[in-house]
Amino acid sequence: MPRANAPNNVAEELPFEGPNFFRLRVCYAVLSGRPIVVSAIREDEDNPGIRDCESKLLSLIEKITNGTKIEINSTGTRVTLRPGMITGGCVTLNCGNDRCLSYFLEPLILISPFCKQAMRIKLLGVTNAPNELSVDQIKTGWLNVYNRFILNDEALDLKIERRGLKPGGGGVVIFSAPVVRNLRPLIREKPGKVCKIRGQAFVTKVSPSLAHRAIDAAKKTLRDYISDVYITVDQRKGDAGGNSPGYGLFLYAETTEGVFYTAEAISRPKGENGDPIVPEDVGTAAGVALLEEIARGGCCDSSSQVLASTFMALGEKDVSKFLMGPLSTYTIHSLRHLQQFFLTTFKIDDFAALDAGKKALEADMRIGDPHKALLTGVGVGFKNLNKIII
């Protein structure tokens, strides 16, 4: 079984309350082999219990594992999960239109290296949604961090076959990942300087002229920062454009050290209350969001901090160091969950408090927020016992 050196009380159930961080708890339970009980899930709301997206996530976990037992009470306010063996393999799932597909991709990416068989997951649903991490950001930001921890990344890919926007969805993505014996320790302390900005304006079932207007607005926003900006247009027609019209702009900045910062803005979904968002506002919002990510600095963007910290904790019993921008609230809670499930903690240094030589170099290069966090930790030695050594 793909298990770490689990603590002696491995069979003891970990209790949690409320729906917050449901994905993290389910994902870490599967990886650690620790049973969990999540109670009081929206019990005081008019519509109590788990949502449709959460039930589909549990269904997905059942499909990629063998022997997992999930119990949900009649009201849906209490979930008990007893994880089994991680098998992986080929799975197809319709994820509905409530949440973006990134909601399901995040736990899949964290679990994927430790499967018995290489993952090839086909997900149907919404690829881009307002105020959610998009599939494009997962593909560019998360997979770049992922392949730093593994030696063989040939099978690592996230293919967007169809785009699907809210409310109709209709998007299709295929995620494939290799199987590894263990994750290697990593030292990443130099973010480098931004050398180019690239992006893609996507339109589904609307005029491509809207994409060009968004691109012009984004270039005006980024013009004073860097001149090397190149943005393409991804126009989807028919089935490839999903079931709802819309448009958006995805941007990423690449540094001299191979670090990627990502950002995205998207139009308001059809039928949603509020004034429509014009393409110029979408372009400006995407440009400003990217500049904010660049200003945070670090060796990954804010969304992939969870991936980096989790893989550091699951790595070999050796020291790993990773420089991040100011830690997001989600990352802080993920570190607390790592301590609960794997009994591992990190030393977190404020970059501004490091020695004067490094601060002087940082000030000279003007790379990001001075209050970045340098995470230092030793992995638990998590090994995939299903991986055959040739």
UniProtKB/TrEMBL annotation:
GO biological process, one term: endonucleolytic cleavage of tricistronic rRNA transcript (SSU-rRNA, 5.8S rRNA, LSU-rRNA)
SUPFAM superfamilies noted in UniProt: EPT/RTPC-like (SSF55205)
Main location: nucleus
Domain RNA 3'-terminal phosphate cyclase insert: 190-295
Entry annotated with the keyword NADP: no
A GO cellular-component term linked to this record: nucleolus
Subcellular location: Nucleus, Nucleolus
InterPro entries the UniProt entry points to: RNA3'-term_phos_cycl_insert, RNA3'_phos_cyclase_dom, RNA3'_phos_cyclase_dom_sf, RNA3'_term_phos_cyc, RNA3'_term_phos_cyc_type_2, RNA3'_term_phos_cycl-like_CS, RNA3'P_cycl/enolpyr_Trfase_a/b, RPTC_insert
Coiled coil (residue ranges): none
NCBIfam families documented for this protein: 18S_RNA_Rcl1p
Protein name (database record): RNA 3'-terminal phosphate cyclase-like protein
Organism: Mesorhabditis belari
